[in-house]
Write a structure and sequence with these properties.
By secondary structure, the chain is mainly α. It contains one helix and no strands. The chain starts with 8 loop residues before the first helix and ends in a 27-residue tail after the last helix. The relative contact order is 0.12.
Length: about 45
Amino acid sequence: MKQKRYRDFNSYLREIFGCRVQKITVDAGLNCPNRDGTISTGGC
């Protein structure tokens, strides 16, 4: 197989776990940590 010029994240995870790794979403039920605007005015 032809070697890539860079090491992408997918190849790294396959090397670590030995199979395909997928992302899942988790709803933690949290609000915006910057709701009061003390950190920034750009939003969440």
